[in-house]
Amino acid sequence: MNARVFLSGVAPIPWRSKEVEAVISGKRLDAEIITKAGEAAVQKATPMEQNAYKIPILRTLSKSSFRPSHRSRKGDRDPKSIRTKIMDTPFKDFPFKTVLSLKPLIEYLKTLGSEGRNVRLHIKKQIDELLAQAPELERPIEDLSLLETHKEIVGRLMEFVFPPASWETEILGAIVPISMQPFFISPGFRDLFVQKEKILRAPSSLDEENFRKGRVIKIFLLILEKIYGIHQSFEYPIVRATTDPKTGLERYFKVNLDLRFIDVCPLKEVKPLTDEERAFVMGHLIEPETHPADRPS
């Protein structure tokens, strides 16, 4: 096998890695060769003062790109198989419990009416009046049928997030973290991404891994920031492919996640990370689901 390998995001232009090419050319891509390819990718890397963290990321990403795709496995074309994996299995082994809470959004909206902010001062009054009619919306919402009970109030609250003028034309949605249960979505979002059972349509086999990994990475970065104070900007685009019901054509969408209204609450006291643990975390940003037994808790 002859190969040409180019690395993106490491230089002003795509960077050809002859070191990696020398490792994989004419070889079968087994675990040993893939490991060597990852090391070769960073062999001549010279990081600047503020981006040394990219070295372990590049090493891991290079190895990941050479691993056999899950798409080649038998049965992955079966829609039911895909749906089961995407909607059920990705987080079964992850120590996360997720529950819908409108509290972060409500608190944010109330601050908009506080003194010293150059915004409409009547917002806080509106929020207080709405919640006086449904105080249970300020508590964790285990049963999503509560939203249907207070559908009008929820709609009024969400108007502060989704401008009414864009509601009929834009693809917008509010989704419960991790479980990916949509609870407030625009008509465009519903038509493209939601099934009759009010759950997200499974991604196509082509973007299944991208969708899964993108969600995992976003959640772990949020935990690092909220719990450990590690602010790490890492762009891993989440792309969804879907068939447009009106045209029958396949369309591709980049998913833009707004995580401002997600809170992370540890269930027990969190110990500070050691330097070794921080190095481990930074080296596995793009595959945080690997080696869970070795991951700091």
Describe the structure.
- There is one protein chain.
- With 297 residues, the chain is mainly alpha-helical.
- Among the domains are: 68 residues, no CATH class; 70 residues, no CATH class.
- The chain contains 12 helices and 6 strands.
- The strands form 3 sheets. It has a two-stranded antiparallel ribbon with strand order 1-2.
- The longest helix has 21 residues.
- The C terminus is likely disordered.
What would you say about this model in short?
With 297 residues, the protein is mainly alpha-helical. Helix content is 38%, strand content 8%.
Radius of gyration: 22 Å
Assess the beta-strand content as a share of residues: 5-15%
The tally of beta strands, per DSSP, is 6
* Main structural class: mainly alpha
Count of helical segments? 12
Distance between the termini: 42 Å
Biggest sheet statistics: 2 strands, antiparallel
- List segments where confidence is low: pLDDT < 50 over at least 5 consecutive residues: 69-93, 291-297
List the helices and strands in order.
Answer: EEHHHHHHHHHEEHHEEH
Name the shape in a single word.
globular
Mean pLDDT: 76
If strands are numbered along the chain, what order do they take across the biggest sheet? 1-2
**Helix proportion:** 25-40%
